[in-house]
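Tutorial handout. Part one gives the primary structure; part two gives the three-dimensional structure as tokens.
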Amino acid sequence: MFGNVLVGIDETPESLVAVAQAGALRAPDGRLMLLAVSESHLAAHAGLGALRAAGDLEAGAAAELAYARELVDADDDRLTSGDLVGLLCSECAARGATLIAVGVRSHRRLSVLTFGGHDIDALHRVSCSLLIARPGWGPHKPERIVFGVDGTPASRAAEAVARSLSVRLQCEVLPVVALGETVAPEVLREGRGDALLDPRTMVEAIVDASSKRSLLVVGREPVSDGRRRKRAVERLVYAARCSVLVVRYGAAASR
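Part two.
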């Protein structure tokens, strides 16, 4: 699991958080690539200062890549220019990556809908699992791995990944059953001794059960997820105080 990891790096320090945490989640014999991207096209917004802004963006991405090389033992790295998420998607397809990692941006949902953001853009565009990294842990391991249980295939995929990571990283795992939403009867019959029952919605329950040092794991089917689940995953990313691992299950995500 996560034997081929790709990390997106821009000129922001949040990129280094993604690098450190991706290094921790990478399989012991897995590969890690650092893709640093100077989004020089954004410099056009600077008007007369566009040339200088483009140079600053390129210098910033190069500097973050240099720091990233010190943080992790990467198998490959590259500095280029263009659209970060678009290049990550292309590189993912070419290399068969099973996990992409990006740093979170501090934003509100409305501002992202208006101006965009790498983390949310990646959530909607990448075809493999995605780590949206927030400061709080890394490069070693999270303190706790939290996931929701409702009996859907997506939640079962998230549980499988969460429990596997908890064993490998030797950290606490906490399944959450949100009674404020529809829960498959077999979930209650399974009687997980380590589960937390919460009367609220899933997003409210698992966000409250986590801290900055946690990792939230949520499942998402690559193509045919319903609109309701897509919105729930997006709300979780906005509301979380910690890193969120979105597991895209199926053939592409199982390697």
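Part three, for discussion. The beta strands are 4-9, 31-38, 76-81, 99-103, 129-133, 144-148, 172-178, 196-198, 214-220, 243-248. The domain at 144-253 is CATH 3.40.50.620 (Rossmann fold).
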